[in-house]
Amino acid sequence: MHPQLASIFDQAENRYLKVEELKLISQYVASMPERLDTYRNLRDRELEIMQAVVDQLQAALPEESEENLERCIKHALLMLRYCALSLLINDESLIQKRFLDWVGPLAQAYDTKTIDAKLYRLLNQQLAKMLTAKQMGYLSPGLALAQEALLSQSMNPAGGRR
Amino acid sequence: MSIAPAIDDTKHKHPKKHNHYDFRSFFQFDLDKGTIIDWNGSQNILTTEDFIVGLVEGLQEEVGDASAATMYTIGCEWGQKDAFFFEKWFEKEFDQNIRQTNLLFLLETWWWPFTAQGWGRWEVDMGDRKQGFMFINIFDSAVARTLGDVGKPVCYLYAGLFAGFFTELVRKQLSCIEIQCYSMGETYCKFLLGGQDRIDAAAFWMNEGATARDIEKRLRAGEVLR
Amino acid sequence: MLSQLERLSRELDGRYASDAELAFVIDYVRSFNLRVQTYQKLQELESTIVQQACVKMRAIDPGVFVGKNQEDLTRKCVRDLVYGLRATALAVLLNDPDALQEELLLWLQTIMRSLGKSHVCDIMYSALQDVIKQHLTPPQANLVCPLLESNRRILGPTA
Q1: pLDDT value, residue B10
Q2: Nearest CB to A149; choose among B1, B8, B17
Q3: Which domain of life is it from (chain B) (predicted)?
C-alpha cells in the first residue's frame, strides 16, 4: 500500500477520516482504471515487448554469451513485472523490497552492467512504442528507480566476473 | 544502494491500542537489523514446519523415549519464564495488577500473543476449577498440525508451557497432560491441568485406553487412583 | 479491498495477475462513490445512531446496561458501540471485512466472552442494524448491515 495511505490508517485509530484523507483515497481510486489498463497492457504484451528487446539485444551484443544475456533478460522481465505491480498498488517501496534487494546483489555478482545498460535502452524504447504516454507516466518513475539502482551499483569488490 | 525503510511502528503511534494482534500490528520487521520484534518487545523468528519436524525428530534421535519428557520440561521452563514476562507487560498495558484482574480476561490476554505467533487458538474450561483441575483446548496446534496423524499425542511442549505458566500464576505446583490430540485423529487437542495426582490418574486411565471424555467423566465424579 | 490487494501482491510473487484475480479491484472502483457516501452519512449521523441504538437495546433487554454488581455500564457500552461502529464504517469504506475481523473482531470475541458480555454484543449489533435501516437508503444500508450482522455472529454468544 502506498505509504501515505498506510499512514492515514495508522493514525486514524478509530476516528473518522478527515476530508483531505478521504481525498487521497479518492484520488487513488480514480486513478485505478488507468493503472489497471497500464498493468494489463504490460501483461498482455509482455512477450511481444521482450521478444523485440531480445532480438535487438542479441544483434547489438553478438560477443556476449547466451547465458549472460539470458540472465539479464530474466532480471529485466522481473523488473518489469514488479514495476507493473508497484504502479497498480501505487507503492514504489515494493520495487526495493521485493526486487532490488535480491536482484541487486545478483546483478553485482555477475557484473551485468554493460548488458543491462544496453538492455534498458532497448526496453524503454520498446515500452514507449507499446504504451500510451499516460501509461508510461505511471510506469516510468518506478522503472527509472529500478534501472538507476541497478546501473549505479559499484562493481563487485572481489573484481571480475564469476 | 538501499533505501532505509521506515519502521512500521504501530505501537508508538497507538501504545494503548489493545487490539494489536493482527500480523502487521503485532510484529515489527526491521530490515536493516534483520530482526522481528513483537509488541511486547520479544524477539521472534519465523520458522517453517521443517523446523518443528527437525526439532521433534532430532530430539527423538538423541534421547529416544525421553523426548516427550524433555519437551515437557522445556515447556515448563518456558511457561515459568513467560509468567514473569507476561506480568510485566500486562501491568504496563492495562495499568492493573494481574492478581486484581478478571481471570478469564487475564488468560485470554496472555494467550493472544501465542495465537498471533501461530501456536493456535485456545479455549479455557474453568468449570472444574473448584475441584482443582481445568481443561484447555487447543485448535491448530502447530506441533500436531505439522506432524499430522501419528497415532500418539505430541503436544508436550504445550503441556509443559501450561504447567509452567499456571504454576507460577496460581503459586501452586501444577502439572499438565494432553488427553486428546490432533495427531491421534481428533479435531483438536485437549489438555488437563491440575495437581500431580490428577495428572497421574489421567495418564493411568489413558494407558488403559480411556478417551478424553472418559477421563473428564471420571475426574468430575471424583475418581482417584488408589 | 486494500488488504486483498496486499494479499494478491504477495501471492503473485513475480508473475502477473489474471483478470479474474483483478475483478475485485474493478468491483471496488464501481462501488466507491456509494461507499464514500455511506461512510460520510454514518459519520454525520453517529450521535443519533448511537443514541437510538441504546434506546433500542434497552427495549430489547431493560437490564442490558446494568452490571453484575448493579453498576451502570452505559458509558462503557456506548464507548464499545462507537468503537465498533467506526471500525465497521471504515470496513465499509474500504470494503475490507477481513481487516475488520483480523484487527478487531477475533480479538474482541475472546475478550467479550471472557467478560461475559457476548449477549450484550448480540443485542448491540441487532439494534444497530435496525437503526441503520431507518436512517440510510437501502443501497447504503446493504453495505453496512451485512457487516453488522457478521459482527453480531462473531461477538454474540455461540449457538
Answers
A1: 65
A2: B1
A3: Bacteria
- Per the document, the length of chain B is 226
Question: Does C136 reach chain A within 8 Å, measured CB to CB?
Answer: no
Q: Give me the residue from B2, B3, B13 closest to A10, CB to CB.
A: B13
The nearest alpha carbon in chain A to B19 belongs to A13
pLDDT at site C18: 97
Residue C38 reports pLDDT greater than 50: yes
pLDDT at B124 (0 to 100):
97
Instruction: Say which amino acid occupies A120.
Output: Y
User: Which positions ≥6 away from C45 have C-beta within 8 Å?
Assistant: C135
Note the pTM of the prediction, 2 decimals: 0.89
pLDDT beyond 90 at B6: no
Greatest Cα pair distance in chain C: 61
**What residue ranges do the domains of chain B occupy?**
1-46, 49-220
Q: Give me the pLDDT at residue B178, please.
A: 97
Superfamily (CATH) of domain C2-155: Phycocyanins (1.10.490.20)
- What pLDDT was estimated at residue A162? 43
- Shortest distance between the Cα of A68 and any Cα of chain B, in A, equals 23
Q: H or E element: which one contains B105?
A: helix B103-117
Band (A9; pLDDT cuts 50, 70, 90): confident
Dist CA B25 CA B10 (whole Å): 6
From A64-73, A148-157, B27-36, C75-84, the region with the lowest mean pLDDT = A148-157
Against chain B, the chains showing at least 3 CB pairs within 8 Å are A, C
Beta-carbon separation of C110 and B112 below 8 A:
yes
Cβ atoms A138, A35 nearer than 8 A: yes
Do the Cβ atoms of B19 and C108 come within 8 Å?
A: yes
CB atoms within 10 A of CB A37: 15
What pLDDT digit, counting tens, does each position of B15-44 carry? 778 999 999 899 999 988 999 999 999 999
Closest residue in A to B31 (Cα) is: A97
Q: What is the b/e burial string over B134-154, where b = at least 16 CB atoms within 10 angstroms of the residue's CB? A: bbbbbeebbbbbbbeeeeebb
Domains of chain A by start residue, with CATH:
3-7+17-151 (1.10.490.20)
CATH code, B49-220: 3.30.1380.20
Which helix (H) or strand (E) segment is B190 a member of? strand B189-194
